[in-house]
């Protein structure tokens, strides 16, 4: 699909990645060509509180889920996994025959859900990597915006893939086209089951997993379990994959923290089902033991249960 000369984009979800990419799309496209999908109550709250990105207020144009705007050229899903089903319903009016759908969610399942709802021919695959964004309420701060890896399910570098990358890069979002995007998603999942969950369970920032100690040891063990489960699924992740993520992790501000640790501090629902939940389920199905991820799943579930009391 070739995007129009003046393409329109719709964004649903104003978490860390939603604000990060939304601010860049706003600057690159303008408020008239970027629709942030939000119900009336949520939009009113965003307007009242203000959505800030590195101290700059983002004056988004909000579109209600039922509003008849016509389809967007590109729809970006930036919600948490727990909110994807609702986001799919809310974004329905934005999707037409030629719309491209892009999920920046963690994990390896969101694209399949989008494909089931709208058709696999509309879906691109992605991995958001290398950002150090920290969100507090509707305010985001970051020093590294990272890179968005993009690909087609079959590994082809297509015209529409290049067109979407050109649109995003024109807005200041660095992109990397990959012919192995499905494997790369598994690699990023391996990182997340380690760093996100270890910082959440051990109550630490990046410094706790950058230096030797119990948190780093548990992180590495959880990543090795993910490698073993991936291998059982026919996906080969190497020691070099692990080393590459550890090299990236070493560049992060030690006082920063990944999304799951931020969720725990804010008592928000976490993505533990997407991380340890996926690894333990697939481990059971394939006979791969996952004791560290089993423990992470139990302990983080217990944290969440305690918040609701």
Structural summary, described in words:
The chain has helices at 16-29, 40-49, 84-90, 110-118, 159-170, 181-202, 207-210, 214-232, 239-249, 259-266, 276-286, 291-307, and strands at residues 9-12, 34-37, 52-53, 56-57, 61-63, 74-77, 100-103, 123-129, 134-136, 139-141, 147-151, 175-177. The N and C termini lie far apart (49 Å). The strands form 2 sheets. It has an 8-stranded mixed β-sheet with strand order 5-2-1-6-7-8-11-12, with helices on both faces. Helix 6 runs parallel beside helix 10 (259-266), helix 8 crosses helix 11 and helix 11 packs across helix 12 (291-307). The model has no long low-confidence stretch (mean pLDDT 94). By secondary structure, the protein is of the alpha/beta class. The longest helix has 22 residues, at 181-202. It is built from 12 helices and 12 strands.
C-alpha termini separation: 49 Å
Low-confidence regions = none
For the biggest β-sheet, the strand order reads 5-2-1-6-7-8-11-12
Count of helical regions: 12
- Mean pLDDT figure: 94
The biggest sheet amounts to: 8 strands, mixed
């Amino acid at each position: 699909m070739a995007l129009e000369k003046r393409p329109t984009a719709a964004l649903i979800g104003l978490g860390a990645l939603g604000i990060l990419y939304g601010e860049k799309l706003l600057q690159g496209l303008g408020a008239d060509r970027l629709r942030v999908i939000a119900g009336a109550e949520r939009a009113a709250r965003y307007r009242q509180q203000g959505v800030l990105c590195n101290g700059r207020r983002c004056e988004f144009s909000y579109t209600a889920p039922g509003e008849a705007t016509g389809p967007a050229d590109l729809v970006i899903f930036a919600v948490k996994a727990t909110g994807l089903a609702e986001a799919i319903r809310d974004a329905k009016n934005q999707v037409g025959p030629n719309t491209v759908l892009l999920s920046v969610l963690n994990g390896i399942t969101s694209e399949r859900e989008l494909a089931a709802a709208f058709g696999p021919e509309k879906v691109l695959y992605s991995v958001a990597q290398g950002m150090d964004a920290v969100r507090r309420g509707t305010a985001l701060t970051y020093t590294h915006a990272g890179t968005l890896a993009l690909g087609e399910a079959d590994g082809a570098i297509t015209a529409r893939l290049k067109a979407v990358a050109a649109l995003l890069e024109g807005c200041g979002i660095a992109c990397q086209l990959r012919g192995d995007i499905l494997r790369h998603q598994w690699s990023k999942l391996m990182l997340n089951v380690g760093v996100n969950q270890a910082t959440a369970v051990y109550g630490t920032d990046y410094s706790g997993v950058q230096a030797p100690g119990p948190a780093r040891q548990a992180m590495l063990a959880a990543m090795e379990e993910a490698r073993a489960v991936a291998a059982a699924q026919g996906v080969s992740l190497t020691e070099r994959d692990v080393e590459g993520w550890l090299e990236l992790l070493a560049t992060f501000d030690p006082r920063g923290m990944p999304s799951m640790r931020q969720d725990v501090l804010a008592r928000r629902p976490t993505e533990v089902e997407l991380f340890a939940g996926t690894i333990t389920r697939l481990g059971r199905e394939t006979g791969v033991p996952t004791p560290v991820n089993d423990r992470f799943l139990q302990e983080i579930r217990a944290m969440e249960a305690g918040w609701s009391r």
